[in-house]
Amino acid sequence: MNTMKVPYGYCDLRVERVNDGIINTFIEYGYTFIAVNTTVNCSILGVGNSNRKKRKIAECNGENNEENDWIPTPKLINYDDSKLTIVNRLTVQISNIGQLHRIFNSQNFKLYNIFAVEPLNDQVFQDILTSSSIDIITCNIKTSVTPKQYTIAIEKNIYFEVSYAPMLVNYVARQDTLSLAHLLHIKGKSKNVIVSSGAVNKLDIRNPHDVMNLGILLGLSKKQSKESITRGCYSIILQSYGKKIGKSTINIVPRTANS
User: Fold this and answer.
1) Which of 32, 86, 104, 229 is 20 to 30 A away from residue 235, measured at CA?
2) What span, in angstroms and rounded, lies between the C-alpha atoms of 217 and 206?
3) For residue 125, what pLDDT is reported?
4) How far is it, in rounded angstroms, from Cα 211 to Cα 196?
5) How would you classify the pairing of strands 193-196 and 159-163?
6) How far is residue 170 from each of residues 17, 173, 177, 214, measured CA to CA in Å?
7) Is the whole-model pTM more than 0.70?
8) Residue 31 CA: distances (Å) to CA of 10, 145, 215
9) Residue 248 has pLDDT above 90, yes or no
């Protein structure tokens, strides 16, 4: 993304794939901002404090992990359309905080606009709350979240995510998603929750009004449900701009005569 466009309208901050069909569907449904996601499992790659043996073997085979960036380049670069803005999002699955430090040293990491973390255990979930570089936490029903931890995340302007595409797959995934939404409601009254699609194809995408109705089913209030695809996403996008330029970004909204 060459220019920093002020977000407006409806947003979907997790799309797993982009092609003409998916892009056209988002435009048809009235979305103005989406993020195409790349997921990296650091444990499988052998990255972090617990994988020294694997790194030693790689060095013996002539491989240099520092030179060969293990964070892939974004899926889409330099897309420009007046109707739809697309940014790049990186989601990393980590099992220890040391992996997070190595991510920040990646050159390709700097090419992404939005940074999400999926903690693979309770300890790393607690550890990542100390980071000021995380935009989104993607968790599951097995993640142990306390009200205090939830409050810390809100204070750092970190958002929690619920994706609805898995609900379309099968009953188990649907129940897991509903249970996660219930957990976020119980622990933090569904504050700082965004709803994304996680779309792999155009049939996974729902129009904004259907998503807002789904948000209510997931335990969000009517206001929270609308903000989960509007203002909450704007906050994440503007925060990512601020990190790129090293200072805060302010979104100025004109007041109407009745406000």
Assistant:
1) 104
2) 15
3) 95
4) 9
5) parallel
6) 20, 6, 11, 17
7) yes
8) 5, 32, 17
9) no
